[in-house]
Hints:
Low-confidence stretches of chain B: none
Shape of chain A: flat
CATH architecture of chain B: Orthogonal Bundle
CATH topology of chain B: Arp2/3 complex 21 kDa subunit ARPC3
Helix content of chain A: over 70%
Order of helices and strands of chain A: HHHHHEEHHHHH
Number of strands of chain A: 2
Strand order of the largest sheet of chain B: 1-2
Distance between the termini of chain A: 48 Å
Structural class of chain A: mainly alpha
Mean pLDDT of chain A: 86
Number of strands of chain B: 2
Strand order of the largest sheet of chain A: 1-2
Distance between the termini of chain B: 31 Å
Order of helices and strands of chain B: HHEEHHHHHH
Structural class of chain B: mainly alpha
Number of domains of chain B: 1
Oligomer: heterodimer
Radius of gyration of chain B: 16 Å
Largest sheet of chain A: 2 strands, antiparallel
Largest interface: A-B, 92 and 75 residues
Strand content of chain A: under 5%
Amino acid sequence: MIEQAFTRVDSIISDIDPRIRIVYAVIFSVIVAITDKVVVAGLALAFSMIFSILVRLKIKLILRRLLIVNFFIIVLWFILPFSRPGNIIFSLGNLNITYEGVVHTLLITIKCNAIVLTWIAMISSCGIFELVHAFSHLHIPDKLIYLFFLLYRYVYVLSSEYGILRNALKVRGFRPRTSLLTYRTYGYVIGTLLLRSYDLSEQVHKAMICRGFKGKYWLLDHFKIDKMDFLLGTFMLLSIISLGILQWAKIIH
Amino acid sequence: MHISEGVLAAPVLVIGAATAVIGCGVGLKKIDYDKIPRVAVLSSAFFVASLIHVPLGPTNVHLVLNGIVGIILGWASFPALLVALLLQAVLFQFGGITTLGINTVNMALPAVICFYLFSALIRGKNRILAMIAGFAAGFISVFISGTLVASSLVFTGEEFMATAKLVVIAHFPVMVIEGIITASVVGFLRKVRPKILEGIEI
């Protein structure tokens, strides 16, 4: 039920130093999130599309993910165009669709998809080990990195644990319904998961003490910045600068 | 429950991120290195549990469970939910970096509130009272989360008023289900392993 469908190791994006990818994704997302200009958002979407092509993921996979992410946006399309005051372009009985409403919703849609596409191309394409490694270079608190890494590691263990519980329910003829019994059963399933995880954490902790863990994660390989990093890094920097100029310089009003 | 990227206004995102940083700071201070495996593995359990879809009439909802998260983890809910949301973003792209702060606050703040309101009753002697407190923790945590999500939208712009109302209404059935499930988790753990309910900070 949990898979890393987006990790790629054989594209020019995955050759870029993960630190550069993280920093780029953060700056890019922040600029796009705060912009109120359709031009900036549109350009950002174009950049994000270029990067998601470069990462060589299956288009179908990306589109399916975008569809889920856009669910909330689709709901907004049914509400926002009607609720923002402005020039009326279309009337449906009592409901008026305004120009400003449509532009605003369109802006949100573009921004959301640009950020998500960049995130898929830059971050989701990273392996978790690479991410954790890069985080430790980027001065994220050690405890938080350690927490993130162990969370990732044990999510898989516990999801197979949940699979066993689910099978046990199935074998006993359990069919989820809207009933008190169903909800109580799920409560017990979650309780059992917590119980197993509690015992597991005890073992993990002891195993780590046995191996002399003192809160430091030793890194065995190191990142190198090479020519390709430099080239794509420059392109990424230029894309950020162009978005920044469009956003803050007074060329377009 | 998640607010998508690109929707909220800059001030809301900044306040969310700042609050998340403070909350995580307090939370991380409360757990030393020895406690981290426990917090991590428990949050893995919550991560998996939140992927369970429970039926509700013709549709189904997924669980939030931040009430019971708060009872067990206390302030550590902030870092625990932050890394869980980050992992969700990496694996499933629900939310991203700019909404990470506000989404963490919307889930972790109710958890911490429930920790202060209900943990004494849930750990207390009376089983019935403990289960009622469990129901209240599940119910109220989702209610506060829904309200926080709605207010994040309203503070972004007046035009989100209708959406915000819809968010709160959509949360009502989830509150009841969360209440029932949290109550039965509490009942179960009290019987089987009351130590877990005593929380992470001991």
